[in-house]
Write a structure and sequence with these properties.
By secondary structure, the chain is mainly alpha-helical. The chain has two domains: about 120 residues; about 30 residues, no CATH class. Helix content is about 60%, strand content about 5%. The chain contains three helices and two strands; from the N terminus they run H-H-H-E-E. Strands 1-2 form a two-stranded antiparallel sheet. Strand 1 and strand 2 form a beta hairpin.
Length: about 160
């Protein structure tokens, strides 16, 4: 029986993992990275669509401004802006679909990560030393370990 076995220390809790645990941790990290990559990609797509929508709103504003600011003040016809409004609605639907995809990815990868985490051993340090206590300090009554020459609490020499 080795020294660490006598102390009953779980080496995996101290960062010394077996091969299976290292593989599981690697899979967890790869899964997290994949989830992050996919959600970032969706976020970029959503930002691009929102930028397009803002451009469309600017175009609508320009149409309205030009119609109203003409010297003969033309009547603004909704026919002029209906195609823009339809395009905005379409883009908002695209955003809703992408947001749903993002939630699905987060849920799916979250479940996968949860399953992978269950494969890892509990990260508890179990030091149940075979405390060979033989006595107590005569000065302060602190527990004295066998082989101690001084009290770790008050410093009294044994």
């Amino acid at each position: 029986m080795g020294f660490l076995d006598k102390l009953n220390i779980d080496m995996s809790s101290m960062g010394f993992d077996d091969q299976e645990t290292r593989q599981n941790k690697k899979m967890i990290e790869q899964t997290r990275q994949k989830q992050e990559q996919l959600t970032k990609s969706i976020d970029v797509d959503i930002n691009n669509i929102n930028s397009d929508v803002n451009t469309i709103f600017k175009d609508i504003g320009a149409i309205i401004y030009n119609k109203v600011s003409d010297t003969d003040i033309q009547v603004l016809e909704l026919v002029d802006i209906i195609p823009y409004i339809q395009e905005i609605k379409s883009k908002k639907q695209d955003i809703a679909i992408l947001e749903e995809k993002r939630l699905d990815i987060q849920k799916r990868y979250g479940e996968e990560l949860e399953m992978l985490n269950k494969l890892l051993p509990q990260q508890n340090i179990q030091i149940n030393a075979v405390n060979q206590t033989s006595d107590k300090c005569p000065n302060c009554n602190a527990v004295r370990m066998q082989g101690d020459m001084f009290c770790t609490n008050c410093g009294t020499k044994y």
